[in-house]
Amino acid sequence: MSETFNGEIAAQSAPTIENIESAVQRCYARAARRTEPSLCCPTQYDSRFIEMLPPEIIEKDYGCGDPSPYVKEGETVVDLESGAGKSCYILSQKVGGTGRVIGVDFTDEMLVLARILEIRARACDGCDNVSKASSYLEASLDSR
Known about the structure:
This protein is of the alpha/beta class. The protein has one domain. 43% of the residues lie in helices and 11% in strands. The protein has helices spanning 3-10, 17-33, 47-50, 55-59, 86-95, 108-121, 139-142, and strands at residues 76-80, 100-105, 130-134. The chain has a 3-stranded parallel β-sheet with strand order 1-2-3, with helices on one face. β2, α6 (108-121) and β3 (130-134) form a beta-alpha-beta unit. α1 (3-10) runs antiparallel to α2 (17-33) and α2 (17-33) packs parallel to α6 (108-121). The longest helix is centred in the N-terminal third of the chain and has 17 residues, at 17-33. The chain is globular.
């Protein structure tokens, strides 16, 4: 986790959910503007799926694992906190033309970046079945 993110939380005498969410939003908004290596989790991906992706998608990947081994052709997949979209474009190649991938993120700056990079990623064979959405994932838990 980024030093700035940890520092923001540690500086609060009694962190609240709202303060933590705000710190996370600020942290990932910065990461959308410039690469934040401290947010990256080392993950090995099948090189067949990443070799055609734009470098900025790979550089701004803040994911925590590779879900592609669990996905089959024709499936619909939702990628929660999808960021710049690396997993989305890997998964889109796995689900193929009959499948669909929906990337969801709650950081506006990440969604803007993902939409900009989407144009470049569509040049990747099989990456035209991805859509992006903004959502506050925890909101569905609040309604229970």
